[in-house]
């Protein structure tokens, strides 16, 4: 049947609101509660091959690259395998070393992004193994890879990717869990994460239920010419993705920074006209993050803080957006959902064509 925006004013909003359902789809049939692991038949790798992986290199473009950074963090944390993400558009131009015991992972919603496809071909030409995290079944990247995980997010029409991104993160969580459980991740930790993943779709729903509270915040952010998105460690790729989404549809300059790096330069830009959206999850860095908020406040920079219940912001005056807590490793996904809504409502307020932002295509299939 035709996929239509229906009663929604745009595909982007429809796709944001679908996430509780589409998130279930990527998890369905893949979680194992008894052994605290995931089963990813499509990877086509047995336990011996999974154990032989010494490094993971993730390749994607734009938002798929940023979610790749979230995925790399998950894999390092859960599987204790060194992992990183790289922009697929740069990869083939630097004559990369392809190692036989590295697992290459290509990430793409469309499965047709030319830069990602050519990166996969570079890996395979040099004898590497590349698996895909792809949404569109039978797409070029899916066919080029040795195996992979389909994202089951359903068709995504809006140029600004939302539900596919969420499912990319969840697919990385499944991969990290399976890689972890054939190595040193304990069954207790495995079960803890399986339970966390099962709670996530409902918690995404909770965040979406708070949409109305975000509209005014988004309108204020839309008035700024330039803004910062800041986060640390797990929160930094979320900040990058939040800035990207904001730029794409609001046409405002948005820059992501590690909170810890502010004092090394960009603090010079903070003033009453430059708002900062800060990610401050309830984790071991919360206190340090709050310290950075004080620095911003002292320069009269307006603050929007995406945080958890129980994080003490002290005297800092900020607009606080609270998301539910899950297992800390899975924080990025719930922190990201309000950023989707902020970008959406800012663009809506500015009267932009949300589904088809200027200068951009849904998938970039020519170099
Ligand atoms: C996301 O909002 C962007 N439109 C863009 O960065 C996108 O994620 C990128 O072009 C990759 O597309 P793909 O997932 O289809 O490969």
> What level of helicity do the residues show?
40-55%
N-to-C terminal Cα separation, in Å?
A: 32 Å
SSE topology string = HHEEHEHEHEHEHEHHHEHEEHEEH
Give the radius of gyration: 20 Å
Structural classification: alpha/beta
User: Order of strands in the sheet with the most strands?
Assistant: 4-3-5-6-7
Unreliably modeled segments: none
Mean pLDDT across residues: 96
Bound molecules: 2-deoxy-2-amino glucitol-6-phosphate
What is the count of DSSP helices, taking H or I runs of 4+ residues? Answer: 13
What's the shape? Answer: globular
The percentage of residues in β strands lies in 15-25%
The major beta sheet can be summarized as:
5 strands, parallel
Q: Give me the count of strands.
A: 12
Plain-language structure description:
This protein is of the alpha/beta class and 367 residues long. 44% of the residues lie in helices and 16% in strands. It contains 13 helices and 12 strands. The chain has helices spanning 11-17, 19-27, 47-51, 63-79, 88-91, 114-125, 140-144, 163-181, 187-209, 211-223, 235-250, 286-298, 331-350, and strands at 31-32, 37-38, 55-60, 83-87, 102-108, 129-134, 147-150, 226-231, 253-258, 276-280, 303-307, 319-322. The strands form 3 sheets. Strands 4-3-5-6-7 form a 5-stranded parallel β-sheet, sandwiched between helices. Helix 6 (114-125) links the parallel strand 5 and strand 6 (129-134). Helix 2 (19-27) packs parallel to helix 8 (163-181), helix 8 (163-181) runs antiparallel to helix 9 (187-209) and helix 9 runs parallel beside helix 13. It is globular, with a radius of gyration of 20 Å. It starts with 10 loop residues before the first helix and ends in a 17-residue tail after the last helix. The mean pLDDT is 96. 2-deoxy-2-amino glucitol-6-phosphate is lined by residues 61-64, 108-110, 113, 116, 159-161, 248, 363-364.
């Amino acid at each position: 049947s035709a996929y239509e925006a229906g009663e929604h004013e745009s595909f982007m909003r429809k796709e944001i609101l679908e996430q509780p359902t589409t998130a279930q789809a990527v998890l369905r049939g893949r979680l194992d509660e008894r052994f605290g692991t995931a089963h990813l038949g499509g990877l086509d790798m047995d336990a011996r091959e999974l154990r032989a992986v010494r490094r993971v290199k993730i390749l994607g473009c734009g938002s798929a690259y940023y979610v790749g950074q979230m995925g790399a963090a998950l894999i390092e944390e859960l599987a204790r395998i060194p992992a990183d993400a790289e922009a697929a558009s740069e990869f083939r131009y630097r004559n990369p070393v392809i190692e036989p015991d590295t697992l290459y992972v290509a990430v793409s919603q469309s499965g047709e992004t030319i830069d990602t496809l050519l990166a996969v071909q570079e890996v395979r030409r040099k004898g590497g193994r590349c698996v895909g995290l792809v949404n569109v079944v039978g797409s070029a990247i899916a066919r080029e890879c040795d195996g992979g995980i389909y994202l089951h997010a359903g068709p995504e029409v809006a140029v600004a990717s939302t539900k596919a991104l969420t499912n990319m993160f969840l697919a990385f969580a499944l991969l990290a869990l399976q890689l972890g459980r054939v190595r040193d991740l304990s069954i207790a930790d495995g079960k803890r994460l399986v339970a966390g993943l099962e709670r996530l779709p409902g918690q995404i729903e909770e965040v979406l239920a708070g949409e109305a509270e975000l509209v005014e915040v988004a309108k204020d952010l839309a008035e700024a010419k330039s803004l910062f998105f800041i986060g640390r460690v797990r929160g930094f790729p979320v900040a990058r993705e939040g800035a990207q989404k904001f730029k794409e549809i609001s046409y405002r300059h948005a820059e992501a920074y590690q909170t810890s790096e502010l004092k090394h330069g960009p603090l010079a830009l903070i003033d009453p006209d430059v708002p900062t959206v800060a990610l401050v999850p309830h984790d071991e860095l919360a206190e340090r993050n709050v310290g950075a908020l004080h620095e911003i406040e002292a320069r009269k920079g307006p603050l929007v803080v995406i945080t958890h219940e129980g994080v003490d912001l002290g005297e800092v005056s900020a607009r606080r957006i609270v998301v539910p807590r899950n297992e800390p490793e899975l924080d990025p996904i719930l922190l990201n959902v309000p950023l989707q809504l902020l970008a959406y409502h800012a663009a809506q307020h500015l009267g932009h064509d949300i589904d088809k932002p200027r200068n951009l295509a849904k998938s970039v299939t020519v170099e």
